[in-house]
Amino acid sequence: MGIISRGFGGRRRESSPDLPPGQYLTHDFPVLSAGPTPRIPLDRWQFSIITETGEKHTWNWDEFTALPADEFTVDIHCVTKWSKLGTTWKGVSLDTLMADVESAADYAMAHSFGGYTTNVPVEDLLDGKAWVAYEFDGEPLHPEHGGPARLLIPHLYFWKSAKWVNGLRMMPEDEPGFWEAAGYHMYGDPWSEQRYHGD
């Protein structure tokens, strides 16, 4: 298909206990996207959670940004082998968004403006593990980094932190999203180097 390359790397892993195997430290914020950058006006932005029974919970931008938000600092790790340590974000935790959602699903599919999808186990979205982030480093999140809001699941490879996120669809069974269907790992743990199917 021509969209997976195992030749991203080339830099040796720096010695740091904060760097997963095969990663190198970067101080900039590389931009990698599978297509054009969507530009979503805030008056058209919305985020929805659709349960396995079809029940839909939706927030517009004003409703979403009025929810309790966290400011937090995390390390992020891209499957293309860069890691950026100590990144600071602001966003709404999935615990807050899921508080009134009745679902017994074990998996969720994140959907984005532009058609991107990625699958995530529900247990990796809850208990303070994931957010829908709308600020980076004290500023509104720029479109090239997924603004106005992106999913942020820092303990998984960064492709799971879907840019331009607009919703979650709850699923009783796991199924691959965009990159997973193209050969990336279904889970994506950086510390286990789960980059591709078979890793």
From TrEMBL:
Gene3D superfamilies: Oxidoreductase, molybdopterin-binding domain
Boundaries of every Oxidoreductase molybdopterin-binding domain copy: 35-179
Region (Disordered): 1-23
Highest rank taxon of the organism: Bacteria
Record Pfam families: Oxidored_molyb
UniProt cross-references to InterPro entries, sorted A to Z: OxRdtase_Mopterin-bd_dom, OxRdtase_Mopterin-bd_sf
Protein name: Sulfite oxidase-like oxidoreductase
